Amino acid sequence: MEIVTVAEEVMNKAIKKRPDVVEVYTVEESSAVIEIKEQEVDTFQSASSRGLALRVLLGNRLGFSYTSDVSHDAITTLIKEAFENALHNEEDMFISFAKKNGGTTIAHLYDDKLKKVGEKEKIERGMKLERAAIQYDRRIKKVRHASYEDSEYSRVLINSNGVKSIYRDTVCSTSIMLVAEDGKNSETGWEFDYNRFYDGVKIDEVGIEAAKKAIGMLGAKRINTCHVPVILDPKVSSDFIGILSSSLSADSVQKGKSMLADKLNSIIASRIVNLVDDGTLEGGIGSAPLDGEGTPTMKTHLIERGYLKGLLHNIYTANKGKTVSTGNGIRGGFKGLPGVGITNLYIEKGDISREDLMRGINKGVYITEAMGVHTANPISGDFSIGIAGHWIENGEISFPVRGVVIAGNILDLFKNVEAIASDLRFFGRIGSPSVKISEVVISGN
User: Fold this and answer.
1) What is the pLDDT of residues 49-79, one digit of tens each?
2) Average pLDDT, the chain
């Protein structure tokens, strides 16, 4: 049965039981995962799934249920359970559903070509990726995995307030992890790329870049403890933004679980830092015409010139905070209720190159890896993590560094941002350019 027809059938049947509001969310997914080792297919997984979630509102009582079975009996049970759950739940005056709206028009989310690409061609992509890495340098001794993946989604969200969101999206990606050896040392290298469109995904470049990273770290050594400026690679900066992201949720602030509580309109970062969440970003992994509740997505300025100017809201937190949703009602899947989450969260890029950031450093570190950023305290912002990268001497890369530690506070880190490069890159839903920090304590020998 067609996914839209199923959603409409469930809503019409639920409406007959006379709730205040009904909402139906359905999603269909098909995916392929291919891993290559030594020019042979090591893994080939192809899967498809469909799920349906129902929310009903009886006064201020919310009922929720879900199923992956769309048979007549399963739908009857789904509706019955949602209403029973509502009757047993406590009233909550802040619960409401999205009203009818126009939604947001976003281009370039779906690739029609993907359905026409055969398995053989996808496998060749993985093989080509592995070859590009191996052939780049004789010191590349092992490829742990070279993979190609793609996913296609069909999503429907309708409610009895008149909201109707129907759209499709695709994601294709390549990734590789490899090992470089020089007889004395070995180092790993990892790289990836993704794109909404099959033809937009990089292959050779991903393999070569992973090889360069591994080779560049051969012979890495510790350095003495020092106070020096550092440059955070986009991936490392994005990792720190990821920790900050939970504190940007109005839900976390309202529950007292945010390092940004009571800091609205205060300076929390350098005056050159602008942080944005944009659910309308063309080609963004988190982009969609409406969020998981049916609210139009939008561009939300969270940090402007260092000032905390906004938080991320879904309908519930907006009602509680006497404001409006920012279109950040995010669903992790059909089995869960919408929460507050990011769409495409990023630091706006500067206008100079990464090389220009380095030229201004006499002695410092270019940090390309940060181990254990997830262990940072999301409420206090305190962290202590291992890092790796390259020593900078007289504005140029000198030698690789490993086995050292940096510690501090995430807000202090962002307050010490001195310059931002133009090389903005996304890692899933979070992106950042290279960022120069004026001074960091590095604990080494």
Assistant:
1) 999 999 999 999 999 999 999 999 999 999 9
2) 95
**What is the value of pTM for the model shown?**
0.95
Radius of gyration of the chain (CA): 24
Quote the domain boundaries for residue 272. Answer: 220-445
Question: Do 67 and 190 share a domain, yes or no?
Answer: yes
- Domain with residue 24: its CATH number is 3.30.2290.10
Q: Which tokens hold the place of 231?
A: 């440059």
- Total structural domains within the chain: 2
pLDDT given at position 445: 77
Q: Are strands 339-340 and 345-347 parallel, antiparallel or unpaired?
A: unpaired
pLDDT, tens digit (0-9, with 9 covering 90-100), for 79-108: 999 999 999 999 999 999 999 987 778 888
Q: Are residues 160 and 138 in the same domain?
A: yes
Sheet of 275-278, strand order? 307-308, 299-304, 275-278, 345-347, 430-432, 425-427
Verify that 226 and 206 share a domain, yes or no.
no
Do residue 252 and residue 172 come from a single domain? no
| Predicted local confidence at residue 105, as pLDDT | 82
Residues 61 and 177 in one domain: yes
